[in-house]
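Review form for a predicted model. The reviewer records the input and the model, then writes brief findings.
Reviewer: anonymous (R2)
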Amino acid sequence: MVNDVIFDFCGVLVDWQPQRALAGLFSEEDVAAFFADDDHCGFMYYDDLHDRGTDYPELLPAYEEEYGAQLAQMMRAYAAHIERTLVGPMPGMPELLTDLKLRGVRVWGLTNWGRDTWPVMTGRFPRLIEALDGVVVSGRDGDGAAKPDEAFFSLALERFGTDRASTLFVDDSPYNIDGARATGLPAIRFVDAAGVRARTLGA
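Model under review:
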């Protein structure tokens, strides 16, 4: 029985497309290289540092020292235009939150997101965040921890006051799903709202 559902934000509750921050500012080839899966430009590594509590005023000079002025210009543009990355709610998810709460299921948010840019998220999606019973943000609350760290999942369960066995975690990242399951937290990988609805409400 599921009494509580903890949702990831980006890719689950919110359609997050990081490339949009740089669209029209740099060539398509440069943008694709910046976000390449092999991370040879260091975006994912430094984005993880940001998620773990290093704010942009400290992070950006460190990135420039490591990767040079040209790539630093792109990272600074990303930081300046992060609101562009937040496209809108994922289809069907606001409705699912409403229906879960009507069934007496509590809903929570757990996100890897920077402390200094969290106001961008709250300003963009106030109703979505208000629909949640609480949110734990890595950069603000994690003290250096983030998904898929065991400490971050334990922090969330403690803050939310939820029972691990009757709580379901939903995320689009297989690494985060594996991390949650390693702590004994039931978890499913997000594909779409219909799949989560079937797992939680049976319809």
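Findings: The CA atoms of residues 35 and 174 lie 19 Å apart.
Further findings: The radius of gyration is 17 Å.
Recommendation: see findings above.
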